[in-house]
Amino acid sequence: MVKIGNIIFEDIPVLLAPMEDITDPSFRFLCKQYGADMMYTEFVSSDGLIRRGVKSIKKLEIRDSERPIGIQLYGHIPEAMQEAAVMAEAARPDVIDLNFGCPVKKVARRGAGAGMLRNIPLMMEIAKLVVDAVKTPVTVKTRLGWDEQNKNIVSVARQLQDTGICALTIHGRTGTQLYKGQADWTLIGEVKHNPYIQIPVIGNGDIDTPQKAREMIDRYGVDGIMVGRAAIGRPWLFRQIKHYLLTGESLPEPTLSEKVALAKLHLEKSLDYKGSPRGIFEMRRHFVHYFKGLPNFKSIRIRLLTTLDPEEIKDILDEIENIYK
Known about the structure:
By secondary structure, the chain is α/β, with parallel strands linked by helices. The protein has two domains: 2-247, TIM Barrel (Alpha-Beta Barrel); 256-324. It is 44% helix and 14% strand. It contains 15 helices and ten strands. The chain has an eight-stranded parallel sheet. A two-stranded antiparallel sheet has the order 1-2. The protein is globular, with a radius of gyration of 20 Å. 46% of the residues are buried. The mean pLDDT is 96.
């Protein structure tokens, strides 16, 4: 049994990582259908939220069917993060997650996201302010450290626990590493096995197969697994991982017909939520992964990734099914 805030998981949970322009309601709907135990919104800017920015406010929209779900906030100004957390709490998430791990330059160079790993006292000030400001359980997602010379996650984890957070997700790379190289789970394991750490520790980084999930759980003893980029265009990965963890059996990939039907449903929901052309733009990354590995696919892929006509996209998806069935 794993307890995160007020949420109790009977088995080791498999969580969907928060990802900008990815984990919107359309994608969350699919991941939930395939068994994601817990999900998170896209990143919500604390500055944008307290200024009542339309895009930031819209990201707070969650549905009861998505529960348990967390709203993830990022920023580097303590008062703004505190105010934003109070606003996020009004949307009734199951947890409020603090993003201390995003390595993207426009976030980190301002001192937010993974940039917070360069200012640990500020990180702790923000975490404590947010924990004290809301009744909703607070979690944190971060990295091993800012760079190779400063992999200080063991110390950081102890300090974060002391602020009152209820769970910690660790991505097995440094801030400067971005998404290059392999994720190193060794320090994640050290945090988990540190006798001082009493909160759940969730491992994140390079979980792209059910077998990898099982290996990381067995080797490092984490309380949960978070799946990020590997789920893009592969929402069925959650079902595969959960089935393998429970039975040791591998589920097959969905058929091409199933993938086409899923891509159409995803497109429909993306358009409903974000409209055109934005809903189409944000589907393109998913399309690439839905049909990855099909032979002689380049010309069809170019058409699929360049048209802005929803009906033409549906026709191309039908064409894919007819050609490769």
